[in-house]
Amino acid sequence: MRVYVTGNITVDETWSIADIPQKGSSVHGIKVSQDIGGKGANQAIILSRCGIETRLIAATGNDSNGVWIRQQLINEPLSLLPNAYFNQHSDTSIILNSADGDNAIITTTAAADAFSLEEIIPHLADAAVGDILLQQGNFSVEKTHALFQLAKARGMTTVFNPSPVNPDFAHLWPLIDIAVVNESEAEELQPHGVTTLVITQGAAGAWLVSEGQRRFCPAVAAEAVDTTGAGDTFLAVMLASALLRGVAPDTLALTHASRAAAITVGRRGTFSAFPGEQELAALLSTSGE
Length: 289
Ligand code: ATP
What we know:
Elements: E1 3-6, E2 10-17, E3 29-37, H1 39-49, E4 54-57, E5 60-61, H2 64-73, E6 79-81, E7 85-86, E8 92-98, E9 103-107, H3 110-114, H4 117-120, E10 132-135, H5 141-153, E11 157-160, E12 178-182, H6 183-189, E13 196-200, E14 205-210, E15 213-218, H7 230-245, H8 251-265, H9 277-284
Parallel strand pairs: 1-4, 1-10, 2-8, 4-6, 5-7, 10-11, 11-12, 12-13
Antiparallel strand pairs: 2-3, 8-9, 13-14, 14-15
The structure holds adenosine-5'-triphosphate.
């Protein structure tokens, strides 16, 4: 059993500035950090650190950031496909943090957009019954739809985390087995007809809706240093916990996910905040007590 993640990979640059710039202004700032990011990459990295065979199918550009991304992933237990650089700049998020705690984010999607369906499909050639296709919201609705259709035709299990949200994703529910949404995505997209629905509620916890029941799993109390990547950690560990035990996502999977997400929120950064392989192995061996 293998998880294929089709999505994006980015370089996340965090800059500290006095205030969010006004039109026409020129301001000084400090570059605070540079990290791997992108929801596809985040989720794939954590799944692979949990011991799940993971293929991340995502585009890197032919610039220095593309080279840097590949260097960062050398020690991760996942395969990044294709092993090539696209004739684009790598996708980047510039996160501007102002002194009063506000932020503004600029994200590029040129590399993810340039990765055509025809180029993606060959990387799913050996995907078979029982494998998983996991997607987020960074591809167009058409591309996301076509890939889920292909996965269903192959007998794969489909997992959708429709973030960033697009109202047209609401048409994709008939193709989805497992949906993971936060409260605002749930409200906008009204997920229905899926076998397993998980609705996360930040520091409160998450709901598991499956087998005709609604069960609540409280979050693990954590001193929130930086909540970026909490949702990605939660989803990946929930899925890994269930897959490793050969079951559908259950309350233990959500408990493992909450414990892992609490580690991520307690540390600064995204990639650099994620739990490591040993932490995840220890956490995944815990019971629900
Ligand atoms: P992201 O900000 O990464 O996009 P999201 O909106 O997808 O996150 P959330 O509902 O904010 O997802 O969080 C997912 C899970 O992470 C929660 O269900 C909870 O278990 C955990 N979590 C989030 N924030 C906190 C927090 N402040 N303290 C402890 N756990 C948290």
